[in-house]
Amino acid sequence: MSEAIERFFESLPARAPEILRGLVSGTLQIDLSVTGGVTEHWLVMMRPGAVMVSRQRGPADAIWYSSADLFERMVRGQAQGIAAVLRNESTFSGNVVLFLVFRRFFPDPPGTRDPREVARQQAGRPA
Amino acid sequence: MNDLVSILDGNTFLVTDQRGDVEPSFDFPTGLFSFDTRFLSTWLLTLDGERLHPLSIDDARSYRTRFFLAPGEPTHYLDAKVSVIRSRAIGGSFNEELTVLNHSGEQVEFRLRLDIGADFADLFEVKSPRQKKGRATAMVNGDELRLIYRREAFHRETVITTSEPADIDVAGMTFHVRVDRHGEWTTRLHVATVVYGARGEDIRASLRYGGSRDMAAIEAEQSELIERAPKLGCDCEPLATAYRQSLDDLAALRYESIALGVRLLAAGLPWFMTLFGRDSMFTSLQVLPFLPELVPPTLQILAGLQGHRVDDFRDEEPGKILHELRYGESAGFEEQPHSPYYGSADATPLFVILLDEYERWTGDSQLVLLLESAARAALGWIDTYGDLLGTGYIWFQTRNPQTGLQNQCWKDSPDSISFSDGRLPGFPRATCELQGYAYDAKMRGARLARKFWNDPEYADRLEREAAQLKERFNRDFWIPEKEYFALALDGDGRQVDALSSNIGHLLWSGIVDETRAGRIVDHLLGPRLFSGWGVRTLADDQGRYNPIGYHVGTVWPFDNSIIAWGLHRYGYREEAGRICDAMLAASRYFNGRLPEAFAGYERSLTDFPVRYPTASSPQAWSTGTPLLLLRVMLGLEPQGEHLVIDPAVPEGMGRIELLDIPGRWGTVDALGRSRTPLDGRRP
Predict the structure, then answer these.
(1) Cβ atoms of residues B547 and B601 within 8 Å
(2) C-alpha span between B100 and B81 (Å, rounded)
(3) Alpha-carbon span B62 to B218, nearest angstrom
(4) Which end of chain B has fewer CB atoms surrounding its CB within 10 Å, N or C?
(5) 10 Å Cβ neighbour count for A67?
């Protein structure tokens, strides 16, 4: 399992109060296939303002399946989950709202600048 | 488009020629489409090697068409010994019943050939064709023809089966049939569109409405929706026709979102059969007094897909409401940004406006609580990422110059925002109506914060900000020598001074100083903007005016409905009535189905509203227009637990009676009548 993915899941509880602001609760299972036909499981229990992460399988309200490689790109901000589902590189089953909430944990694409800073610089205004 | 025939059920639709045939085309999307993919690009029938000619077409139903055909050219009609009926329906899949009738006194053998092909074009490739990156194959398998497209894990199939035996090859089916004297022969063709998921299953199989539905199910569902809507009785025939047509089309435009498993309204046939933030919210605002239950799924999916990060490719920012969601190959492989795309600067304030308006009608405080964080994030966006330059206005400038939208307002074509002399301003741009929406969103957000979120401080702050915005706007956008509001500010803060219909939206938002409303009304109903059929998008003396220019001179029914609502808000009831009257008069020329837009020619010049060449129809927010016009004419406005009914029916329209208007009051009836000398003479 990649270090980036491990670190990502470790960071979730601390980030939950900021990110899980809605009223959604539920459990999302994330199944990641790694080389050699092995599948790694993560279980993310979300409720307003808090999250618990474990390495169990289910029970879950929704399941995300993809390669660990794709998930690592998502964790780095390089890939986006909905496009991945549309091109069938990943699959989703169960309550979609849970994934829509969970995707808020993924970061900006690398190297992204604040658009306000860019626009104000271009317009010659103070940022 | 006028000589094409369309049937649709949600976001599956079929566009054919008058014979029921589909031939490969790239300029206009003919064929069978589902979820933004073309599953049939060839569907062409010949009888003994000859093309058929249409005798008549029955397309009274949105999901069903029947073609009556005979071989050869029209001059041969009278000799026709044979005719063909193609009876077809759409409901997730596509079914066609093909019947050959032998009118002669002896048995005849026919060779019936159906050419079949699928290019699996993404809707965006239909607009600008290019080489497919994946591989298409065809397979014959017993009584079925299977057309397959694969690109990496992306996998679509069209599966065609026939009830009667045929010689099937990879390019179609041939039937050798023998029909008795005065007899007939029929086969049933079934076309399934399959969208495979990673586990080799059709991902729509698990959707409640996603699979094939038979005609009875579609009919039942559509009539149930129409049954629920308030009943209209009126003297004005065009109004009755338009109302009925609107309800039919709203029923037909509903589709099931793959993402949420809820039913949403597609924006318009053929280009916009998907979820648009702006279109779905304006349509929701229009239909709210009639079919409030259509609104929560829209708000919920828009909240679920609210922007959460800064993504330049998608023009996404935290708190922003989406512009457009697509399901096709180009979105999946990120050749287009619609997964979803966020390039719209008005959807975010509109989200707050719709949520508030919905509660005012329905009293559904649960939804207001459920969506509190989404609404706060939307309000937050207005003052942060929305205010690109930090000047207290909403600005837009795409960060995706290749596939993003330049103009992120409802007039989103490239030349829609211009100076009076036709020059195009630089970026970023702040169009005027965006500031109106921001003002309204803050005022409504304040009401929600005070009444439901238990946050009076936030409410005070929003009201303060709204008041400051109104003051600032009336200073910076008002052009004293022209006496109207500028269409926009450019990146240098200069007024983009074209006279446009956008000033009508400002009335709807309430951002216009009372003292200036009269001048705005004069412009809207004056000869430069008002064509006689409606308010033009751009005044006819402006540099870029073109009566058949998409956003620079045409008349948009949706635009006019919002303007009429704005006139109502400021008390200009007679003027609002003139717009309602003009729109309904125009609708007669479209059999009650107002198109996306029509030409801006002067009414006295053409005597009828001239069609805009590629207008979508049905288009959701045009479909919603007659409903909002009814609201305006009857003066319907929720106040506390009650519905205020204050009719101002235009001269000559007679009686309007709307029964069982749903809302927090249960249901109430509204009655209006025009009171003029002309009406006095009515029986």
Answers:
(1) yes
(2) 11
(3) 10
(4) C
(5) 15
**Is any Cβ of chain A less than 8 angstroms from the Cβ of B64?**
no
The answer as to whether B499 is a domain residue is: yes
* pTM for the structure as a whole: 0.94
Structural domains in chain A, CATH included, are 3-122 (3.30.1050.10)
Residue of chain B whose alpha carbon sits nearest to that of A125 = B389
What per-residue confidence (pLDDT) applies to B199? 54
Q: Is residue B139 part of a domain?
A: yes
- A21 touches B at CB < 8 Å: yes
CB contact under 8 A, B304 and A88: no
Chain B residues with beta carbon closer than 8 angstroms to that of A88: 152-155, 196-198, 332
Residue among B207, B199, B146 nearest B171 (CA): B146
Structure tokens at B65: 């068409």
Residue B434 lies in a domain: yes
Q: What is the CATH number for B485? A: 1.50.10.10
Across the interface, do B332 and A87 touch by the CB < 8 Å criterion?
yes
Residue of B nearest to A110 (CA): B311
Distance between CA B256 and CA A123 in Å, rounded?
A: 44
- Report the mean per-residue pLDDT for chain B: 92
CATH number of the structural domain spanning residue B67: 2.70.98.40
Alpha-carbon gap: A12 to the closest alpha carbon of chain B (Å) = 16
Co-location of B598 and B644 in the same domain = no
Distance in angstroms (rounded) separating the CA atoms of residues B274 and B37: 12
Rounded Cα distance between B408 and A51, Å, is: 36
Chain A closest-CA separation from residue B259 CA (Å): 6
Q: Check if B96 contacts A (Cβ < 8 Å).
A: no
Phi, psi of A88 (to 5 degrees): 65, 25
Going residue by residue through chain A, which has 127 residues, state the pLDDT in tens, using 9 for 90 and above: 589 999 999 999 999 999 999 889 999 999 999 988 899 999 999 999 999 999 988 899 999 999 999 999 999 999 999 999 999 999 888 888 899 999 999 999 999 999 999 999 988 876 5
Strands (DSSP E) found in B502-554: none
Q: Which residues of A are less than 8 Å from B366 in CB distance?
A: none
Q: How many domains is chain B built from?
A: 3
The residue in chain B having the minimum alpha-carbon distance to the alpha carbon of residue A124 is B492
Please check whether residue B28 lies inside any domain of the structure: yes
ipTM metric: 0.97
All residue ranges of chain B with pLDDT < 70 are: 1-3, 26-27, 74-79, 197-214, 256-262, 676-683
Q: Could you list the residue range(s) of the whole structural domain that residue B664 is in?
A: 635-683
- A89 in contact with chain B, both atoms CB, cutoff 8 A: yes
Under 8 Å between Cβ of B436 and B505 = yes
> Closest to B311 (Cβ–Cβ): which among A22, A88, A108?
A108
Interchain CB contact of A103 with B (< 8 Å): yes
